[in-house]
Amino acid sequence: MATVAPCYIIDPSDKYRPDHKGEEQFRNYEEGEFIDRVKRTYYEMHTKQSVESVTNKVEYWTTFDHMEMTILEAVEALNALVDESDPDIGLPNAIHAFQTAERIRHAHPDLDWFHLTGLIHDLGKVMALWGEPQCFVVGDTFPVGCAFSDKIVFGRKSFENNPDINNPLYNTKLGMYAENCGLDKVLMSWGHDEYLYRVLLNHEKCSLPQEALYMVRFHSFYPWHTGKDYNYLCNEQDMKMTPWITEFNKFDLYSKSEVIPDIESLIPYYQSLIDKYVPGKLKW
């Protein structure tokens, strides 16, 4: 089992404060300060994420014997991580977690489970701190085992070296799936969404509602909830949950240019939510 040295919330000094940006400036994958890093990460992801590799990652990470941590310990650990797929900002993920949570809290003051979902949504990225390459941790997600959509970042051309691209079992519209089978039966590319979702399911004391679990599992599935593709794989329940994911993503994406909150003063509130919905140490 891995060990992590004590890690404390970073003091959000001015060097971590992004310039204010308009909404149209987010998710720009054509130019910007981080574009070379972002493109390299996505091309590696789209080359390596296949049915075989994803299946192997699922088997490896769902043994849940890599670490035992509380939610807040996992948040603190993300001080050490900058997402290499993010074109908008170079902030440590722990700061982004509180930014997202606080924007949700302001807009939905009565939905405390929603506030906590904002805080924890990226915690699956701890895999990168334990040696997993970021191409299997960060970025937008997509189904494997069927044709890759042009709505995926950098399009189909970025998959030209993927081993599944010429496999007749996987390169048709439905591939290995039945129409409207439901996303629960779809093998998604491996990353932080799917990992955290499975960690939460494995935690007997987790009482977050289904809406929260959908947000965790599919918030990075942009080709679906924003690109409006892959509906042919969805069932009625998936479509019912789509508005919740769309609502969540407004805060996940556009919180990145907001003023950083006073994190230390917020910890008692979020600890109370953790105690309510996801108490104790989780197996990662």
UniProtKB/TrEMBL annotation:
Its cofactor is Fe cation. Its main location: cytoplasm. This is Inositol oxygenase. Binds 2 iron ions per subunit. GO terms for cellular component: cytoplasm. It comes from the Eukaryota. InterPro entries: Inositol_oxygenase (IPR007828). Its EC number is 1.13.99.1. One of its GO terms (biological process) is inositol catabolic process. It catalyses: myo-inositol + O2 = D-glucuronate + H2O + H(+). One of its GO terms (molecular function) is iron ion binding. Pfam families: MIOX. Belongs to the myo-inositol oxygenase family.
